[in-house]
């Protein structure tokens, strides 16, 4: 997007009025059915506009076109061209621009100006049986540390105060470039970037988790006490079938170690229900684990059958109805846990970042809440001098399952 701006294009996101634009570029997801369907629906909407003459050019890029390019070209001929996940230079050149290496590290933000995501690697070397991402994105390629730090410095210079560190597998960072896991060193250096007040870590794979990372998180005030660790399941048989390379006992020990090392840590995980062959007993084991572990944040996915993955060859034996029921059961358990954990916060003082105003409330988040996926803090607006991007100290006055209510101190 920054390269297109340098090529004198004006960028408009999600335009309501298509008369504002002549070229549409749709970035797609090619993993899990709901995301694929959303991508296809978006392409079809713009293809209709292209057919009706409301649009001069339509391009599709990203994971879906990397994975299904031939099929999409055949079924949606209104699209002018398809580009894969590594074709960014091709897109810019196709649109008449020149790729400028001096712009590497510069970003055009699509988030609110006070927070951003920072991708530290691309691709994945894991062999999880249910996942098509390595086929789409390729092998894990860590970005050089100096390049990541340069981008972080430029983001901070743009006014970004909160950085969410991401990749397909953040704990693998550095193994390919430096022959050792360098995420602890990277986070230590990110913590030194002037202007970054919150740094939050996502997608830490449990197998081979670098435990020294926990001390880094604990000892740096501007690294959030937040660990996002997708565990996926707890049954040993299913973990083996998923190729997760970690046992139920090792998973439990890791959860204990994280909590013992970082007092008050916010622990987020994601789980998959309805994996091929998941029995009622194995689902029961997963339910008990959620009840015991009392995760602060939890997301649940129903198993999505992905072509060409090892699990694709397994019989998808759990019905869609059962998958949805199991997901709902887990989320009911989590709702109760989250409600209890939130209630314990009533009367405490916390620091929040203001995201936006909605009606009579300012919507904020604590350091234990990542944008869009976690809890929010609602502060009555009144005449309070708050605006997006500022930090404020508040007292929690009330709570429900997934939101906190607060007054400005």
Order of helices and strands: HEHEHEHEEHEHEHHEHEHHEHEHEEEEE
> Percent of residues in beta strands?
15-25%
CA radius of gyration is: 22 Å
Helix percent reads 25-40%
Tally the helices: 13
The overall pLDDT average reads: 93
Stretches where pLDDT falls below 50 for ≥5 residues? none
**Which CATH class of the largest domain applies here?**
Alpha Beta
Shape: globular
- N- and C-termini, Cα separation: 40 Å
Number of strands: 16
Could you name the CATH homologous superfamily of the largest domain? Answer: tm_1862 like domain
Main-sheet strand order equals: 4-7-8-9-10-11
Describe this structure in words.
The chain has 409 residues and is an alpha/beta fold. The chain folds into 3 domains: 2-102, Methylthiotransferase, N-terminal domain (Rossmann fold); 106-343, pyruvate-formate lyase- activating enzyme (Alpha-Beta Horseshoe), CATH 3.80.30; 349-408, Nucleic acid-binding proteins (OB fold (Dihydrolipoamide Acetyltransferase, E2P)), CATH 2.40.50. It has 13 helices and 16 strands. The strands form 4 sheets. The protein has a 6-stranded parallel sheet with strand order 4-7-8-9-10-11, covered by helices on one side. Strands 12-13-14-16-15 form a 5-stranded mixed beta barrel. Helix 12 (280-293) links the parallel strand 10 and strand 11 (297-302). Helix 8 (183-190) runs parallel beside helix 9 and helix 12 (280-293) runs parallel beside helix 13. The longest helix is centred in the last third of the chain and has 24 residues, at 320-343. It is globular.
């Amino acid at each position: 997007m920054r390269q297109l701006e340098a090529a004198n294009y004006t960028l408009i996101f999600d335009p309501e009025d298509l008369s504002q634009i002549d070229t549409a570029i749709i970035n797609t997801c090619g993993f899990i059915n709901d995301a694929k369907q959303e991508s296809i629906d978006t392409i079809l909407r713009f293809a209709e506009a292209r057919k009706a003459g409301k649009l001069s050019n339509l391009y599709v890029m990203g994971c879906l076109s990397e994975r299904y390019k031939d099929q999409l070209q055949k079924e949606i001929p209104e699209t002018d061209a398809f580009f894969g996940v590594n074709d960014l230079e091709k897109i810019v050149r196709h649109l008449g621009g020149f790729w400028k290496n001096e712009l590497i590290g510069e970003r055009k933000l699509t988030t609110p100006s006070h927070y951003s995501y920072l991708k530290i690697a691309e691709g994945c070397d894991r062999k999880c049986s249910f996942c098509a991402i390595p086929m789409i994105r390729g092998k894990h390629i860590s970005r050089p540390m100096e390049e990541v730090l340069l981008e972080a410095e430029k983001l901070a210079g743009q006014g970004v105060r909160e950085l969410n560190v991401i990749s397909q597998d953040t704990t693998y960072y550095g193994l390919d470039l430096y022959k050792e896991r360098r995420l602890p060193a990277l986070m230590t250096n990110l913590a030194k970037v002037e202007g970054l007040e919150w740094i939050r870590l996502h997608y830490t794979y449990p197998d081979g988790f670098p435990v020294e990372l926990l001390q880094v998180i604990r000892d740096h005030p501007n690294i959030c006490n937040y660990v996002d660790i997708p565990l996926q399941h707890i049954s040993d048989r299913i973990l083996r079938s998923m190729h997760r390379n970690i046992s139920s006992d090792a998973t439990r020990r890791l959860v204990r170690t994280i909590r013992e090392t970082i007092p008050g840590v916010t622990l987020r995980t994601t789980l998959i229900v309805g994996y091929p062959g998941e029995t009622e007993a194995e689902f029961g084991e997963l339910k008990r684990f959620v009840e015991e572990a009392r995760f602060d944040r939890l997301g649940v996915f129903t198993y999505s059958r992905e072509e060409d993955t090892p699990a694709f060859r397994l019989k998808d034996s759990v019905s869609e109805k059962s998958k949805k029921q199991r997901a709902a059961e887990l989320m009911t358990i989590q709702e109760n846990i989250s409600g209890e954990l939130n209630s314990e916060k009533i009367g405490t003082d916390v620091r929040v970042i203001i995201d936006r105003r909605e009606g009579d409330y300012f919507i904020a988040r604590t350091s234990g809440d990542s944008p869009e996926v976690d809890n929010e803090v609602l502060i009555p607006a009144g005449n309070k001098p708050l605006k997006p991007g500022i930090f404020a100290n508040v007292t929690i006055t009330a709570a429900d399952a997934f939101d906190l209510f607060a007054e400005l101190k």
